[in-house]
Amino acid sequence: MTIRDVTSSLACFGLWGPNARSIVESVSADDLSFRFMQARQITIGEVPCWALRVTYVGESGWELYPAAEFGLRLWDTLVQAGAPFGLVPGGYRAIDSLRLEKGYRAWGSDITNDTDPYSSGLGFAVRLDHEFIGRDALPDPSTGGEQSLCCLVLADSQSVAMGNEPVSLPTGEIVGRITSGGQGYSLGVSIAYSWLPRALADPGTAVSVEVFGVAVAAEVRADPLYDPTGARVRA
What we know:
Layout: E1 13-16, H1 20-25, E2 39-44, E3 47-52, E4 61-66, H2 71-82, H3 92-102, E5 147-154, E6 166-168, E7 174-184, E8 189-197, E9 206-211, E10 214-221
């Protein structure tokens, strides 16, 4: 096996949404029927690229990786093909809002090298029927760690936590801090994530989040808030 860093040689675009398939089909003759979490080389317009059937926004689509020198051409091709379907460019804040609604964790803030998959809500991705690096360090999957990463919905949809705000019980005791947060525009709610003691991780638990010096009521919710069955991702 040879490992080679090709980061600088590739461009990357995410094309996601209910019309993503129709847009690509209008400019590609390739078979797009490959399933979620699979990848294939396809050609869009005149641009060859890798198409990865993944998403970070909770909608069906692809990450597209052309050679860097063809990135602008692929962009122009997609923008032109997507115009009849209402395609609009979106940046990081749009992606962050959608991933919060879908409950996707953010590396470096929600999860780090110090968090375990069970407490992070990622135990579904662990298979214990084979050996792997780090297996011995995992906690018991039936108990997890002392804390759990929790989804919070703030009572005031206009109060948005950005990160590191204290999370308190009604008694005033600080029990955690916000790891990430933002406006969930599709759902019309303010969403945040925080590590809380396991005893407080049950949906319905009442807490408050200090946003710019103001205590805002919040509630622990089961996640994901958007498309909990994952039907849209696999459409």
